[in-house]
């Protein structure tokens, strides 16, 4: 089973993830480390701000901690071809948001849809494209584009089977 956890764990894994005048409690750190080790979890490296939370105070009362992170198991990491984690700009929260970017390996999915040039030589293909593109869809321009492309893809797949059948048989 593949797992990826992401968010505010409200605990640090070591003193290097803490800056402030008081000393952080050791028990939560060791329990968190034990949990990640027992479940063979990996802490994904994060680019950007090292400390992901601050209490917003000044002077000796100021504290920063690395509370937010992404943790996964090897199975999840293996299912991705590229993984990156980074902090974004803090807005109104006392935490930096974390962005997790990843691409699933294409071997886990059915083959990609490909538009074949030979289709354009068939008159009914042009009609099919016109009909799909003329379909009335309500929403933002990106939503409309996305829906029309999905609709066209499904119609072209079915049309290809009807018109050309299995060209390999």
Description:
- With 169 residues, the chain is of the alpha+beta class.
- The protein has 2 domains: 105 residues, Deoxyribonuclease I, Chain A (4-Layer Sandwich), CATH 3.60.10.10; 47 residues, no CATH class.
- Helices cover 31% and strands 22% of the residues.
- It is built from 4 helices and 9 strands.
- Helix 3 packs antiparallel against helix 4.
- The mean pLDDT is 88.
- GO terms for molecular function: RNA-directed DNA polymerase activity.
- It comes from Trifolium medium.
**Domains counted in the coordinates: how many?**
2
Number of helices: 4
Please outline the major beta sheet: 3 strands, antiparallel
Residues in helices, as a percent range: 25-40%
Oligomer: single chain
Average pLDDT: 88
Fill in the CATH topology of the largest domain: Deoxyribonuclease I, Chain A
- Gyration radius, rounded: 25 Å
Distance between the termini: 39 Å
> What is the element string, with H for helices and E for strands?
EEHEEEEEHEEHH
CATH class of the largest domain: Alpha Beta
Tell the overall outline: elongated
CATH superfamily of the largest domain: Endonuclease/exonuclease/phosphatase
Strand content: 15-25%
Structural class: alpha+beta
> Which architecture of the largest domain does the CATH hierarchy give at level 2?
4-Layer Sandwich
Keywords: Nucleotidyltransferase, RNA-directed DNA polymerase, Transferase
GO molecular function, one term: RNA-directed DNA polymerase activity
InterPro entries: Endo/exonu/phosph_ase_sf (IPR036691)
Protein name: RNA-directed DNA polymerase (Reverse transcriptase)
């Amino acid at each position: 089973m593949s797992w990826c956890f992401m968010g505010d764990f409200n605990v640090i894994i070591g003193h290097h993830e803490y800056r402030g005048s008081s000393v952080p409690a050791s028990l939560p750190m060791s329990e968190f480390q034990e949990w990640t080790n027992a479940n063979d979890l990996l802490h994904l490296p994060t680019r950007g701000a090292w400390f992901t939370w601050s209490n917003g105070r000044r002077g000796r009362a100021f504290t920063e901690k690395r509370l937010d992170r992404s943790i996964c198991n090897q199975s999840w990491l293996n299912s991705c071809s590229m993984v990156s984690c980074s902090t974004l700009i803090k807005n109104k929260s006392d935490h930096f948001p974390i962005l997790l970017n990843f691409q699933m390996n294409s071997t886990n999915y059915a083959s990609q849809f490909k538009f074949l040039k030979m289709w354009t030589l068939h008159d009914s293909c042009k009609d099919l494209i016109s009909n799909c593109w003329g379909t009335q869809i309500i929403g933002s321009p990106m939503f409309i584009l996305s829906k029309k492309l999905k609709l066209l893809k499904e119609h072209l797949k079915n049309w290809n089977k009807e018109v050309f059948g299995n060209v390999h048989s």
